[in-house]
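idk why but the lab printer keeps eating my pages so im just putting this in chat instead. protein + adenosine-5'-triphosphate:
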Amino acid sequence: MTIDSTPPNKNFIRDVIQSDLENGRVDGVVTRFPPEPNGYLHIGHAKSICLNFGVATEFKGRCHLRFDDTNPAREEEEFIEAIKKDVKWLGFDWGEHLYFASDNFEQLYEWALYLIENQLAYVDELSADEIRKYRGTLTNPGEDSPYRDRPTSENLDLFREMRAGKFNEGSRVLRAKIDMKSGNINLRDPVLYRIVNAPHPRTGGAWHIYPTYDFAHGQSDAIELVTHSICTLEFEDHKPLYNWLIENLPTPSQPLQYEFSRLNLTHTVLSKRLLIQLVKDGHVNGWDDPRMPTISGLRRRGVPASALRDFAEKVGVTKSDAIIEVALLEHCVRERLNKSAERRMAVLRPLKVIIENYPEDQTEGLNAINNPETPEAGSRTIPFSRELFIEHEDFMEDPPKKFYRLAPGREVRLRYAYFLTCRDVIKDEWGNVKELRCTYDPKTKGGNAPDGRKVKATMHWVSAKHALAAEVRLYHHLFSSAEPDVTHDVVKEINPNSLERLADCRLEPSLKFIKNGETVQFERLGYFCSDPDSSDSALIFNRTLELRDTWARIKKKPLV
Ligand code: ATP
Ligand code: MG
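predcted complex ->
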């Protein structure tokens, strides 16, 4: 990846490509990212995107974006557009190489006829259940279908009639004729075409038969002249079939398939089926809910694309299954945001402070640094006045030993402003602290006392009359368990408190001009991203992360 300065880790896929180039199996690299447009992309896909586009860039080749749109029943245009947007946002460009498996339907059909003519495929009339029974098990060989030895001409006629829409769904399939006794179940006469009487988002009503993944995928690779077809480990057992089809068809090229282990992440699920459930059952507010592990959810939460690329690089590419701690992702996000996010002051749970010795109608502008990590970010002016808000939890009436923040009689520093001493506590009728009466020391402007006296805490604040009101949404893990139980593909153990909405937050006035989707650091509180639902009259921020890095504390065990 050239966008980042981090040099790519070595991994076995890069090694394979390097040696294929050196020994002349290929003279250039072509990869592809092949999503099925049946949902939004998640961070697992991001790993695959970074790998496919990453190696293509590294070896001066190209990477295609190909929609594997062979299942009209589950696919939608909305997903196609969302996927394109996400890949672009991640920083990758397929140029003119945007493809659809459906563009190849006619060629695939011709090749199916070719297999039939060569006695390598037949139309089967067994039901789906019967096919399953005849297929055998891992320990028992399968049995030949009674339709396996139909004459070629009958197969050709039936297959043409299937295409023409003469038959009901499920009544017939086209199967490759390979070996019902093969040790690899994928080679026991796999289905190549099934009847689906549903319109396709791109080919409309033109087809009544659709190729299976196995028949469409490798052949599309070959048509696009893909050299390295990189996929996840669950396709390892399909490789002999991938190769069988390429060997037995007059394809224009001979791609090879390589498998790596999928990304798994703690406290979430990375399977479209399960993510669809979360959306459909209303556990989240759509695919781009900031709690979702989708690329669009992470973006809305304020995660920069560069952090996802760093993360993909850090988790590496291997063949062993592992579950990655979500804390590693958070660590990558913090590293990026610490450099890029401007600092602002905001109070999430406001407590009013009145500075009794500060003139009533005075306002002064104080200089505040935008980003201590990035001096070029400059500074801004924030207003200070007699009435402020501080964070409720920064005050304790009866502080325990190690609480150094504000308490009756105690002096603290207000960031960029003055020393402040609490003189009096005002309570409501139920005894809750409602307001603090304080004094400030005018000689401590900028936060230092000329007499050298020290305070133990520096606190953030906003000027009450200048503050903007906002809603801030705090997010917690979507699943309470680190490794959610998803047996039978059902989501359980959903954390009922994953969303916390704070309706009465106060922000420094410069945040009025923040762009939608921009992430800033609220000093001492974390990183926060302006939500696209914000309007001028109703500001909404999403907490990306708190500042504390838990990854640093996790024992540095090997990742994979
Ligand atoms: P899911 O299992 O979530 O439904 P999928 O594999 O069906 O995902 P596709 O749209 O077919 O989703 O995936 C496109 C590409 O992304 C494939 O090459 C697939 O191997 C890869 N991919 C999907 N999930 C992961 C993951 N968790 N880690 C790495 N790569 C993944
Ligand atoms: Mg898939």
